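Hey Z.,

So I finally got round to the zinc ion thing we talked about over coffee. Here's the setup:
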Amino acid sequence: MEFSFEEHPHKRLNILTGDWILVSPHRTKRPWQGKVEDAAITERPRYDPQCYLCPGNKRSDGSTNPNYKAPFAFTNDFSSLLTDTPDGGLNVKGLLQAKSEKGICRVVCFSPRHDLTIPQMDIENIVEVIELWKKEFQELAKNEWIKYIQIFENKGDIMGCSNPHPHGQIWSQSSVPVEPEKETIQFKKYFEQNSRSILADYLIEEERSKERLVCENEHFIALVPFWAVWPYECIIISKKQVQYTHQFNVEETIALAEILKALTIKYDNLFDTSFPYSSGIHQAPVNDGDHLEWHWHMHFYPPLLRSATVKKFMVGYEMMANPQRDITAEQAAKKLRELPAVHYLSK
Ligand SMILES: [Zn+2]
Ligand SMILES: [Zn+2]
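And the result:
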């Protein structure tokens, strides 16, 4: 019997983190008797008088949102990190360690519309969101004590999103958190040996095989990474190696908006639902030198497994050992690739 990636259990390396994952393709045939979620409600009003993110509405801190017409950012009323945290820490014989952490947390409303998610927005409006991401990032980076800025979105209540009004968040902080720190180490190691970006070389391999590509344009590629953990996990990688979103010119920014829309339309079309995910842009740390090894990319971690109501959980072996998946990256990419490019609600 010859080994086959499509049939036999194997391990794959995540080159961005150095972690391994277990792939068990033979298990996709098992029956499902586990938890089934309620189908998400997709019908939403354009404006919700109860929503604290809609234009003109009152927020929980007592302030009132302006009557904004374009993407709108403000400091989170319930920030996880605060600017006025005093320096402090603990180190008991290296056994009990803690350090104070400072930060600024911002919220970005994608548009005044309560009902429009990225796959349903116009390209020009998505470009406005990207321009605001660039502006916010550069403003935050002016604070020399800020070392890392994470732009992300939790979409859908099963991802823990507390308000259905389409929005994302930006958390900036005084140290580099765990995932980007792991990636920095991996990027550096490869760059020191090859004087090249590890993702640029990885893209060459992906373009050659095309097995895991989902969609692409002149400046960006969306694909299911070889080491994907979530069932339909994707990564958008820029063809040009840059460290930060604000290094993209006008044309590249439009191309980014286009690929964001194209990928999220495919996601919604997968199970005819407003597809939940956590997405995040990984950019180089700030106020810390050049980071020529870093390569801009954006992760999408969606939890849905086989329908709008069956979710993957990271439990058991995944908590005790390492993440595991059943459907292979190649099977997931093929399924996404073959979906229509037109949103199911606009047909
Ligand atoms: Zn709203
Ligand atoms: Zn990353």
